[in-house]
Amino acid sequence: MWVQSGEGGGVVKGDLVTNSRNLENSLTDASTERQVRAILRRRGSGGDGLRDVMSSEDLIARCLLAGGSMRLVAVTSTELCGEICRRHETSGALAVALARAATSGLLLATLTKGDEKVSMHLLGEGALGTLTVDASSSGDVRAYPKNGGQDLPVPPRTRVKLAPLTGAEGLVTVARDLGLKEHFTGQTAFLSGEVDEDVERYLVTSEQIDSVLVADAALDEEGRVLWAGGLLLQAMPGGEHEATLEEQRKHLHQGAFFDALMQVAGDGPEGLARAALGEVAADLRVLDTRPVQFSCQCSRERAEATLALLGERDLASILVDPGVAEVVCEFCRTTYHFSAENLEVLRASLGAPAGRPS
After folding, report:
1. What does each C-alpha distance from 209 to 213, 235, 278 come to in angstroms?
2. Strands 117-124 and 170-177, how do they pair?
3. Between the chain's N and C termini, which has fewer beta carbons within 10 Å?
4. Over the stretch 67-91, which tens digit does the pLDDT of each residue have?
């Protein structure tokens, strides 16, 4: 979240206070998130209720093939990715990058049977900047670009090369929350800058799971998401499919998946998988499907907890000038307004003496 006091006041990043109005305070920072959750617990609010959920017709399907010796996850994410881009006023190449990142993050969140949550950052040095995705195995996804609002035109209905815009150097970092206080973190360097290939490399290298992961989006003439989706293909334990995975890795990343996306994305994840994989999917069996949707967990309570991290002294400074504050969620762009009266109550809850500072 961004915390901004009026037109030119201070903002907060973690426990750092500055007079720069453009410095962000991201609740994806683990230490800041823990502090916010602690404040919410003390006030009797878990802060985990979904405030902003957008229903859609997107679906994710978990499947088996090759006689049950290979695992496949297929997803159609057109409405999800379109909603993310709409909220961040992005189009063109950045829209494709966000779509690939959001879909890849969702695929990463399907690797366990439990209720898993994944936070992923793609830290590129190019014009597209950093992309952040939160996804859960239940199909909830949110994402934001560090450099939002960009319009980088690309031809419609064409597979976009992102590497020149993401930069040759970069990192994929992933934090997994497996529940029951079990966490896993890892990172790898970019492979190509194409986003999905970089996330695939993370899976193969950091988590040591031989995988094929592909995600893409096609744009219309106005640079908006026309179709989006992805596939994750893996061998089950004991399955010997190295040759098949390598063959499909080349096949799908060289354009076969994008072609399938353009042809049958409207037919759902099973149709997309069959079109992209061909004979490999001859005995594909769908185990379950579930909806996919944009969902943000921000709330006024979480925004207030973020303000509380400023401390009584800096809240007093804001009360003096300009007297009001705003907290903006980076993921959904919702703005929470806090009046002078709100700030006085919050300051008093931190132990400040009664009365407005002067």
Report:
1. 11, 9, 23
2. antiparallel
3. C
4. 999 999 999 999 999 999 999 999 9
